Amino acid sequence: MKISRSVKNKNIRNNVIGVIVTLLFLFPLFWMISTSLKPQSEAFATPTLFPKHVTFSAFVMESEKGISMLQYLFNSVIVSFGSTILTIILGVPAAYGLARWKSKLNSSMLLVFLVAQMMPSSLILTPLFINFSKLHLINSYLGVILADATITIPFSVIILRTYFKGIPESLAEAARMDGCGPLRTFLKIMIPISYPGIIVSASMSLFMSWGDMVFSLTFINKEAMKPLSLILYKAMGELGVQWNVLMAYAAVVVIPIVIVFIFLQKYIVAGLTAGSVKG
Amino acid sequence: MKKSHQLYFVKQKLTVYTFVLPAVIFMALMIILPIGYNIVMSFENVDLMNFTSKTKNFVGFDVYKSILTNSVFYIALKNTLIFTFWCLVFQFPLGFAMAMFYSLKFKMAEFLRGITVVAWMVPMVAVAGVFKYMFNGDIGIINELLVGLHLISKPIQWLSNGDTAMTSIIIANVWKGIPFNMILLATALTTMPTDVYEAASIDGANAFQRFTRITIPLLKPAMISVLTLGFIYTFKVFDLVYVMTGGGPGSSTEVLSTLAYRYSFTEYNFSQGAAAANVLFVLLSLVGLIYIHIVRKEEDQ
Predict the structure, then answer these.
(1) A46 in contact with B at a CB cutoff of 8 Å?
(2) Which among B261, B79, B260 has a CA at the least distance from the CA of B166?
(3) CA distance B213 to chain A (A)
(4) Is residue A46 part of a domain?
(5) If pLDDT is split at 50, 70 and 90, which confidence band does B1 have?
(6) Residues B229, B117: contact at Cβ < 8 Å?
(7) B33 occurs within a structural domain
(8) How many domains does chain A have?
(9) A85 touches chain B (CB under 8 A)
(10) What are the residues whose beta carbons fall under 8 Å from the beta carbon of A82, sequence distance 6 or more?
């Protein structure tokens, strides 16, 4: 009796500690949202935890260049969905091929993806800028989409490869016995059963390209084509102390990711850990 | 029968390569070729005036000489190392501690661990923006809190002061790094055999002994993975520094990636930018080799 009570107390104590730690840890996100809902005067005054007057005025403000937040949002959507679609089209078959077949060539191809994953973006910025200038891809969505894909494709291939490796060979073998060709096996069997992995890599690709700043900073200078993430940075220099508006921009960058993450949390956490620890 | 069997495998092999090749071609065009171009450029004299024309001069090691004799390079190198070191020193043990705590299996553990991971998903530019606001010298919440608790007597200009700017950036990065460390180590913890712990307890090992004698040795592979990946992600930091301080004040928070960016896109000296990025990549590769080795080893098992 005594033991079970102490276990119960411990359980309560852990829950309380856990909640406090989590609240403290996530404070920056709370603070961002709280500030974004404050009027200008409040954001500038001595800070209060919650807004005294909740207002959405920070969200509807146009930039000084007369472009609405919706346009920036649209740009972010185009770029992030573009590179995610590209990543899935190129990355899923590649991951499957690398997982199913062991050969020297395959292992050196895997090396390319591993190197790409640890490569700093600054390494390819200068040559891409010069090549994109020649190909007229500066100030185009396509340029940023292609550049974002240099990060999202290796990431997805590495995660999905682990996923495909977890599927028993006997399944492909059985399909073969039934007269299923490799392509049909892939499309009809492998893709449907590996959809949790595909969800993970698609959502991570979406998050990564949605949050990218450096590529759009380098390849886009036309105001109407800039994505939200870049506007958030640019606004910090231009708006100065209008922190409620800046935090509204930050919130619009962060909240869609948080929402998608909460829905897919189980898949994402499992998929990420498999991919990153085991490579 | 045998022939059709062989045919099937040849066909499958071809199919497999057609699966992989499109992505590899993309990588070749978008990554391998640019890296090659970067190397070529670093031995030439490419700037805003001549980058579209064909008249570039081979200058040997002049570009490397010019960046390596500039003291800002060593400042950036030192800052990059300091940044990486302190980030790992804090984010790894804190992430580890949280992973251990949430492995206690209390009712809300899984839920709380899950929402903590959200911080890892927040784009770097937004992390930088929020922390820039919190560290603001005039209206930042951090000064407000420290003054309120009488820990400091007057507000600190965190980001416009050379000594504190680096500290602020490190704190922001640690915030994002903790969930990354936590979740990878937590997964490794769940695979630990519980019977070993029970046997050790019966033999009279206390919690500390169980931790140092069982947990640490068993977790070693995961710990090395996490530290290596953490090093790679931290060492190539760009967005965070660029947004929070732009490398300033002075060069006090300049890191190798922001230096490379400044050479290429502020001074438009593309050759210097390429050379600085190459140096960054070579340094990163030294640790990257460990990562690739780990992946390859897993592969053989």
Answers:
(1) yes
(2) B79
(3) 22
(4) no
(5) very low
(6) no
(7) no
(8) 2
(9) no
(10) A141, A142, A145, A209
How many Å separate Cα B290 from the centre of its chain? Answer: 15
* % of chain B at pLDDT higher than 90: 40
Which residue in chain A has the smallest CA separation from B136?
Answer: A241
* pLDDT of B44 higher than 70: yes
By Cβ distance, the residue of A18, A134, A146 closest to B109 is A18
State yes or no: pLDDT of A278 exceeds 60.
no
Alpha-carbon distance A91 to A78, whole Å?
A: 19
Q: Which of B283, B281, B286, B267 has the alpha carbon at shortest distance from B66?
A: B267
The residue whose two tokens read 């090549």 is A131
Nearest to B108 among A18, A212, A279 (CB): A18
Q: Can you give the pLDDT at residue A132?
A: 93
- How many domains does chain B fold into? 1
- Per residue in B266-298, pLDDT (tens digit) is 988 889 999 999 999 999 988 888 888 877 776
**DSSP SS3 for B58:** strand
Of B13, B16, B126, Cβ closest to residue A253:
B126
Is A57 part of any domain? no
Per-residue pLDDT band at B242 (split at 50, 70, 90): very high
Dihedral sign (CA B139, B140, B144, B150): negative
